[in-house]
Design brief:
By secondary structure, the protein is mainly alpha-helical. It is 59% helix and 0% strand. The chain folds into two domains: 3-94, no CATH class; 95-126, no CATH class. The protein is globular and about 40 Å long.
Length: 126
C-alpha cells in the first residue's frame, strides 16, 4: 500500500477523499494537493499517527458543520487544512501566531501575483 493510499484509507472512515475515475485523489486547486502532501510529510516525520489525523479531520468537519458549512464537498480541503493546523498547534510545532503570519504572507503573495501565474510565498512583498 502506498503512502497516499494509507491516508485515503484513514480519511475514508471520517470523510472520503474526492476521487477521480481512476481512483486517485482529485484536487481542484494546487493548494489542495499541497495540503495533502504536507499531511503525508508530517506523518512520515512521526509528528502524528493516523488515529490522531482521523480525529483531527473529524473534529474540523464537525466544527464546520456546526457553523453552517454547506457540506457539499466544495470545502473538503478547507477542513483538511484546518485539521493540519490544529495538529500543528496541538503538537507545539507552530504557534497560532506563526500560523496567522504565514496565512497573511500567503494572502499578500496572492494579491501581488499577476493573474494566471502561480502564487508563490516568495511573491510576498514583505
Amino acid at each position: 500500500m502506498s503512502r497516499h493510499e494509507d491516508i485515503v484509507r484513514v480519511a475514508a472512515n471520517v470523510a472520503p477523499i474526492p476521487r477521480g475515475d481512476d481512483g486517485a485523489p482529485v484536487f481542484r486547486e494546487p493548494w489542495e494537493a499541497q495540503a495533502f502532501a504536507i499531511t503525508l510529510a508530517l506523518y512520515e516525520r512521526g509528528l502524528f499517527n493516523w488515529k490522531e489525523w482521523a480525529a483531527a479531520l473529524s473534529a474540523a468537519i464537525q466544527h464546520a458543520q456546526a457553523s453552517g458549512d454547506c457540506d457539499d464537498g466544495s470545502t473538503y480541503y478547507r477542513h483538511w487544512l484546518s485539521a493540519i493546523e490544529q495538529l500543528v498547534r496541538d503538537k507545539g510545532i507552530a504557534s497560532e501566531q506563526a500560523l496567522v503570519e504565514r496565512r497573511n504572507a500567503w494572502n499578500r503573495a496572492a494579491h501581488a501575483t499577476p493573474h494566471g501565474h502561480p502564487i508563490l510565498l516568495a511573491n510576498d512583498p514583505l
